[in-house]
Amino acid sequence: MDPSRVAPSGPLKKRPRQVRASMASPPYDIKFRDLVLFILEKKMGTTRRTFLMELARRKGFRVENELSDSVTHIVAENNSGSEVLEWLQVQNVRASSQLELLDVSWLIESMGAGNPVEITGKHQLVSVKTDYSATPNPGFQKTPPLPVKKISQYACQRRTTLNNCNNIFTDAFEVLAENFEFKENEVFSLAFMRAASVLKSLPFTIVSMKDTEGIPCLGDQVKCVIEEIIEDGESSEVKAVLNDERYQSFKLFTSVFGVGLKTSERWFRMGFRSLSKIRSDKTLKFTKMQKAGFLYYEDLVSCVTRAEAEAVGVLVKEAVWAFMPDAFVTMTGGFRRGKKIGHDVDFLITNPESTEDEEQLLPKVINLWERKGLLLYYDLVESTFEKLKCPSRQVDALDHFQKCFLIFKLHHQKVDSGKSTQQEGKTWKAIRVDLVMCPYENYAFALLGWTGSRQFERDIRRYATHERKMMLDNHALYDKTKRIFLKAGSEEEIFAHLGLDYIEPWERNA
Known about the structure:
Layout: E1 32-39, H1 46-58, E2 61-63, E3 73-76, H2 81-90, E4 100-103, H3 104-113, H4 167-182, H5 186-201, H6 220-232, H7 236-242, H8 245-253, H9 261-269, H10 275-280, H11 288-295, H12 297-301, E5 304-305, H13 306-323, E6 328-331, H14 333-336, E7 341-342, E8 345-350, H15 361-372, E9 375-381, E10 402-411, E11 428-437, H16 443-451, H17 454-468, E12 470-472, E13 477-479, E14 484-486, H18 491-497
Parallel strand pairs: 1-2, 1-3, 3-4, 8-11
Antiparallel strand pairs: 5-7, 6-8, 9-10, 10-11, 12-13, 13-14
Helix pairs in contact: 4-5, 4-6, 4-7, 8-9, 13-15
């Protein structure tokens, strides 16, 4: 049984539809002033029309509540051109040569693209360019919609940019996934994460349940959330989670560097609900990592900007090249995928000219930064790579490379941004940095693994196992049928081994 199709608590109940009284819409910036839209309620219904109107306004379109002479585009659903013209005749409105009568698919595509798309035959309900009467063109034939390309269940077969057309749904799914993760319910956490991942890849906005047909990873529980958001604009389940004391506490506790689910559970059971109470409690013992997490908490929970990440990158390269001039230093993680902000900065280091003292590089860099007063905390994890015989069977297993988790002291003058969010008088910011040292022959696999996203990595490994009978991790790709390791000098070669089209880093934001 597909776990994503089972409700986590009790049988599913269809929520009664509610038609809410129309309320005054908040003001939105109008981006496309030459277009004035009117959405026809006929065959659509009040609730769906209101939802589409609000969504279009948020996207920058001007949408009129009433039909007027200023309207340039009439959008309808499940109506033929004849029916719309008949409706206009009843309203004592004659179709002019400037008035476009369009199927709702044009509006949905336009909202997904972020701007009005070109009107083609498949969008037009009737041609009124030379017809000034209310009589429909008897020869008009609506162009059938283009076939929808099948959407893969695997993120590694989908291109997912940072342009998310379905934030209203994916934000809700991520809250629910996180809540199930806090409860250590991996099955339902993964179900909502996969649903969010699929919707992020769609080039259009979901505005009706019909739009979800043929989309994988959308189980019954997921569809209930989608339907409720479409009807009411929000999910009651998500609202309940956000107000749940346990969720709020775990969200707060895990925001501290070095605090995981087990520690959060213990603190919650002990009755703690705030960090100030935890900090002041004399009976609690903290790890070195947790002490640093509390000490630099305000900096670490604030976002790292791309300018700050690049400034750290300059200092990392300077330090690495001081001891290993030929080394490759690559920024990975979300910043490699094109994100403008993050919570930490990851760097992958390798040396094409392998030397015996490679394992001494990170200790030398740490020592250099300590002497310069740039290290606030560090944890050096030695390599266990020699013990590795085959790629790990665990999708989320940590790799065996030498790595260092540290908190870096970045001075403001190193950041060419002109703005600072730091406290007045403070000249530096604590930033989380991860350094990973890997052998050159494993560099492509490590680069793929450390680039992410988390769901993309899960899916490409799941694809390798279930579709190709291979095992992939941050170290290697193993063909279980041929019983050999497949070599790769680049990410493109790994994709080729798996029979996948290459997906650029900026298209892996799954």
